[in-house]
Write a structure and sequence with these properties.
The complex is a heterodimer of chains A (377) and B (636).
Chain A: H1 2-12, H2 16-23, H3 28-48, H4 53-75, H5 78-102, E1 104-106, E2 109-114, E3 119-120, H6 122-139, H7 147-165, H8 170-186, H9 191-211, H10 214-224, H11 234-247, H12 258-261, H13 273-306, H14 310-334, H15 353-370
Antiparallel strand pairs in A: 1-2, 2-3
Helix pairs in contact in A: 1-3, 3-4, 3-13, 4-15, 5-6, 5-7, 6-7, 6-8, 6-14, 6-15, 7-8, 8-14, 11-13, 13-14, 13-15, 14-15
Chain B: H1 10-45, H2 47-58, E1 59-64, E2 71-72, E3 78-90, H3 98-105, H4 113-125, E4 132-135, H5 140-148, E5 156-165, H6 173-176, E6 179-181, H7 184-189, E7 200-202, H8 205-209, H9 211-215, E8 216-217, E9 219-225, E10 231-238, E11 241-242, E12 246-247, H10 252-262, E13 267-272, E14 279-285, H11 291-294, H12 299-307, H13 316-319, H14 329-338, E15 347-350, E16 353-355, E17 362-364, E18 370-373, H15 374-379, H16 383-393, H17 395-403, H18 426-433, H19 439-445, H20 456-467, E19 485-487, E20 501-503, H21 519-533, H22 540-545, E21 551-557, H23 570-576, E22 580-587, E23 594-600, H24 606-624
Parallel strand pairs in B: 2-12
Antiparallel strand pairs in B: 1-9, 2-3, 3-4, 3-5, 6-7, 8-11, 9-10, 13-14, 13-23, 15-18, 16-17, 19-20, 21-22, 22-23
The chains are: A mainly alpha (377), B alpha+beta (636).
């Protein structure tokens, strides 16, 4: 209900604030949704971080940086983005190769490059560069894409995905792959091709199993049977399920989650923050948060459908759906439906890189929305 | 701009995209519904399950030790109390370097290698964030110095608690017993649930017998812990029920006096109120300081106590078994009168020895008494009279009669480890020795020698029964009344009766003795008065001393009690070869208020060593608790 009010208020365009936002090429409903989710995130983070204001300030600073990046991205005309797409993609690939050769180790994987000024994570940039590249490539020709173009697009997607998976960073690889795949899907990829890909994919599962690292296999196995290793790999899932389940319909109340506040829940400020939320705010809180996410995705999809060209449509659409994949994979993991994959809960989990990338992506979506040529409809 | 493809139909492409976007949006909706469904499953359908798991995670139930009940004497003076004490504890999780910490602690607290050893053992078994004790009962200075330097010792805590303390030290230790640290053996006989928080448990004496009463019930505290097991806060608490204070019949003054009277002798004194069996004093010398045992006695200290030839740990009053000697003569005399084996005024001529017909062996008396009747034989302790009487009665008759006075079986006092004593008869000898009974043995049993054995407590109890004209009493230490049970199974080397909890009962273990001629009691008691008051009474010295009419009987036991396996000590042997001195007495003779049995090991003669102790004890008691005025009481 509240969000509907936001939507209509934005459409009305009467308030000075709305006019200012529109002048800044910001989409008010989308911003409202983002702010709402981020606010929820701050509230949960305060609890999961042991009421640390320091943590909160850091997260707020990151969110501020993210908003700034969003604002900047919103000013860039989609035309320019389209021109930069191939170059960004190629540069990103180069950096990914560099990471594999000379990257910094972190958590058993090479993900970071030290640029002297700052360390960057090129795989993060690929979450945007890959859908841009796919949109650029497919948007050039008629839809739906021919089989040949689908194959080329597939190769364009799988190259960075393979490089990232090799780091190894399964979560990011998954997000990049889905970003590209959504581009293909939205471009009108034929259903029978999808079915074929599904069959091939299923056939490739044993191969993938063989190529997986031990820790990844363990994660899959633990996911299938968490009780098999309750003190090791299964501990995360078991404890987060206990946290969520013990929350009940209404939750234990803010700052009252025993699972999180007594340290039973690992990684409770980052990947498992939804468990804290579920424990303290219960089923109704969790459902409300999911509804907020759905609103944001819906608004972004609506924007994409309104875009004037294929590039804008495909890019906005695949970015919107990638955002949703974050939500699905993270929450699915926390409540024991999906394997434990290192994907943060967007706009809520503590951490900088994904926050900036996500808000940058929303900036692009807003740019696509606000840079329509003034033609009569 | 939109591409160079001439064949592109932009409207159619936009339509295609829109359809796909709708499909994607619906897909997202479905995913959200699945997630919501899963949430519903976890948070509503399985909520109970996960809520339980969550509580199991965060809550721990801790027991709180109850405060042990105090023990007081009959006038309310505290015999066992609980004092605040400070224990030095180390928390393994918070001590970084144990060796370095111990090294630095050394300059603040004294502790030895045994302490460190115990610490290391407990260290491995400690539950998370549970303190491991290094040193008990820190001195106040040590507490002060450590508190000031607390910051230098992370993980080192000074924990305040209560520790058992016996303010009078060794006084009454054999009655009181002591508490010691709870061990595996204790947990097997006690309910482990109620002892979860308890560190000390009664090991002996009253502390052991009334453990259940003194202990109380533990409280329960539900605490919230973090994943490491560290207690964060107390959720709720059910206070423990403190143990009940108990009052004993012991009189602290009399007890101390009895122990002082025994002095450096090895021996025992038991004083009862003959009217109901209340134990006024129960002394066994030498004693020991029970406080040594409370927090773990050092190995050397314990070895010294255990190996001392004077056996301070041995409770002579209820476990020492001595030949009763002449102290049984009043009972044998009663037996003779009852069986009409003797008349009161029937005399014999005592030549100083006795022979069985047709045998040459002489059974010696301690002197030639000349012409004596039965009364004289008691007051002057003529053995020949009783040798002769024993032969007339026979051992079986004598044994049966002696048993009617509670000899040869436990008195049923509320203390653990009481011994039976022994009243032998031919049947017993055949069963236990596989030998027939010789009539010569009957002779010496007439004067309480031979196999016959009695504990000082049994002698006191039998004396009380004489004082009561045959009405038996059951000795007891717990003054209060109420439905209370006492443990009388002993902690250590008990006969194999096993674990017996005897309901505290005031019922004597024997039936009253009814004599055909009621005045026989007066006759024998008069004879016992003659012991202290008569011209030739064996204990006439105390009769002169005492303002009270004391009925008594001396005894001298000719067996010395070198325990088996003890080393032969050339210096000590002379003393150890001396006879045990015994004396039983009650007073005032006509309305008895106190019955006493005194045994002094190797004390020489009953009259010389044991009787004065009994007399002083009686005088003191009757002086402090004067009997109501009676016309015929002050005969002495």
């Amino acid at each position: 209900m509240v969000d509907d009010g936001g939507f209509s208020g934005a459409r009305g365009g009467g308030a000075p604030l709305t006019r200012l936002l529109l002048a800044l090429r910001v989409d008010p409903p989308l911003l409202l949704g983002i702010l709402a989710i981020a606010a929820v995130g701050m509230v949960v983070l305060y609890s999961s971080g042991g009421e640390s204001t320091e943590l909160l300030v850091q997260q707020a600073v990151r969110f501020g940086i993210g908003l700034f990046v969003m604002l900047v991205a919103a000013q860039i005309p989609p035309r320019n983005l389209r021109l930069w797409s191939p170059w960004l993609f190629v540069a990103g690939l180069g950096l990914l190769v560099w990471v594999l050769v000379a990257g910094e180790m972190g958590g058993g994987a090479k993900r970071w490059i030290d640029l002297g000024v700052a360390t960057v994570q090129p795989s993060e940039a690929m979450k945007i560069a890959v859908p841009m590249m796919v949109a650029w490539y497919l948007g050039d020709r008629a839809m739906p894409p021919s089989f040949g173009r689908v194959l080329v697009a597939g190769a364009l997607i799988m190259t960075p995905v393979a490089l990232v998976a090799y780091q190894p960073d399964l979560g990011t690889a998954l997000l990049i792959a889905s970003a590209g795949a959504f581009g293909l899907f939205l471009a009108g990829l034929r259903w029978r091709l999808m079915l074929g890909a599904l069959v091939v994919g299923a056939a490739l599962i044993p191969v993938g199993w063989h190529l997986m690292y031990d820790y990844q296999r363990r994660r899959v196995l633990t996911f299938l049977d968490p009780e098999s290793d309750p003190l090791g790999a299964g501990y995360h899932i078991i404890q987060s399920k206990i946290a969520v389940g013990s929350g009940g319909l209404y939750g234990k109340g803010w700052l009252n989650g025993t699972q999180s506040r007594l340290d039973f829940l690992p990684e409770r400020s980052t990947d498992f923050i939804f468990a804290v939320f579920g424990e303290e705010f219960g089923f109704f809180g969790g459902s409300l948060l999911l509804f907020l996410y759905l609103c944001v995705v819906g608004r972004a999809l609506y924007i994409s459908a309104e875009a004037q060209d294929s590039f804008g449509r495909l890019l906005a659409g695949s970015l919107a759906l990638t955002f949703f994949v974050y939500v699905m994979v993270n929450i699915g993991m926390v409540i024991g439906l999906l394997p434990v994959v290192g994907v943060p809960l967007p706009l809520v989990s503590y951490g900088g890189t994904s926050m900036v990338t996500l808000l940058g992506a929303f900036g692009i979506i807003m740019s696509i929305h606000s840079h329509k040529r003034l033609l009569a409809p | 701009m939109a591409g160079s493809d001439r064949l592109r139909d932009y409207e159619r492409e936009a339509g295609l995209y829109r359809r796909r976007a709708v499909v994607a949006g619906l897909g997202a909706l479905v995913v959200v519904l699945v997630l919501v469904g899963r949430l519903f499953h976890l948070q509503y359908l399985s909520h109970q399950h996960y809520a339980t798991l969550s509580d199991n995670n965060r809550m721990r139930i801790e027991a709180i030790a109850p405060t042990r009940g105090l023990i007081r004497d009959r006038d309310g003076r505290v015999l066992a109390e609980n004092l605040p004490s400070f224990t030095l504890e180390l928390v393994p999780e918070r001590v970084e370097d144990l060796e370095a910490t111990l090294e630095r602690l050394r300059s603040f607290v004294d502790f030895d290698t045994a302490d460190v050893e115990r610490l290391r053992r407990a260290w491995r078994r400690a539950r998370p964030f549970e303190g491991v004790p290094l040193r008990f009962q820190l001195s106040r200075e040590a507490v002060a110095r450590l508190s000031v330097n607390r910051h230098r010792f992370p993980g080192v805590d000074i924990v305040a608690g209560l520790t058992r303390h016996y303010p009078w030290g060794r006084t009454g230790v054999h009655a009181l017993g002591y508490v010691g640290r709870l061990d595996e053996g204790d947990l097997q006989r006690l309910d482990p649930r109620s002892y979860r928080a308890t560190s000390h448990v009664g090991k002996n004496g009253i502390e052991y017998a009334y453990e259940e009463v003194l202990h109380g019930d533990p409280g329960v505290r539900r605490v919230e812990v973090n994943v490491e097991g560290r207690v964060l806060r107390v959720l709720d608490e059910e206070a423990p029920v403190p143990g009940e204070d108990i009052q004993l019949t012991l009189d602290l003054g009399l007890q101390r006096f009895a122990e002082r009277m025994l002095g450096s002798e090895d021996g025992a004194v038991v004083a009862l109120d003959p009217r109901d069996g209340a134990v006024l004093a129960l002394a066994s010398a030498p004693g020991f300081d029970p406080n040594l045992f409370v927090n773990g006695i050092g190995r050397d200290t314990y070895a010294a106590l255990r190996d001392s030839p004077h056996r301070p740990l041995f409770n002579r009053a209820i476990r020492g078994q001595y030949p009763p000697g002449s102290t049984i003569k009043p009972i044998i005399a009663l037996n003779g009168l009852e069986r009409k084996a003797r008349d009161r005024d029937e005399t014999i001529h005592c030549r100083g020895y006795f022979t069985l017909e047709g045998r040459s062996r002489r059974y010696r008396d301690w002197k030639a008494h000349g012409e004596v009747d039965l009364g004289d034989a008691i007051s002057q302790s003529c053995d020949v009279m009783f040798y002769d009487l024993a032969m007339d009665l026979g051992m079986t008759e004598m044994a049966d009669f002696l048993r009617k006075f509670g000899l040869g079986q436990p008195t049923g006092i509320d203390l653990p480890g009481e011994r039976d004593g022994l009243i032998p008869d031919p049947e017993w000898k055949r069963r236990n020795r596989g030998e027939p009974w010789y009539s010569g043995e009957t002779v010496i049993h007439g004067i309480g020698q031979g196999y016959m054995q009695a504990t000082p407590l049994q002698l006191a109890t039998a004396t009380a029964q004489i004082a009561n004209h045959g009405r038996p009493v059951r000795p007891y230490l717990l003054a209060e009344t109420g439905p209370v049970e006492a443990r009388t199974d002993a902690g250590e080397d008990v006969p194999a009766d096993g674990d017996v909890v005897v309901a505290r009962a005031r019922e004597p273990v024997v039936e009253p003795v009814d004599l055909t001629v009621e005045t026989d009691w007066d006759f024998v008691i008069d004879a016992m008065v003659g012991v202290t008051e008569g011209e030739h009474g064996t204990a006439r010295a105390i009769g002169w001393e005492s303002p009270h009419t004391i009925a008594g009987k001396t005894g001298t036991a000719q067996v010395f009690s070198i325990a088996q396996g003890e080393e032969y000590d050339a210096e000590a042997i002379a003393k150890q070869l001396r006879d045990h001195a015994l004396f039983i007495a009650f007073a005032p003779a006509m309305a008895p208020r106190i019955a006493v049995a005194v045994v002094v090991e190797n004390g020489g003669s009953g009259s010389g060593t044991a009787a004065p102790i009994a007399q002083k004890l009686i005088d003191r008691w009757l002086e402090e608790h004067p009997p109501p005025e009676r016309e015929d009481d002050n005969g002495g």
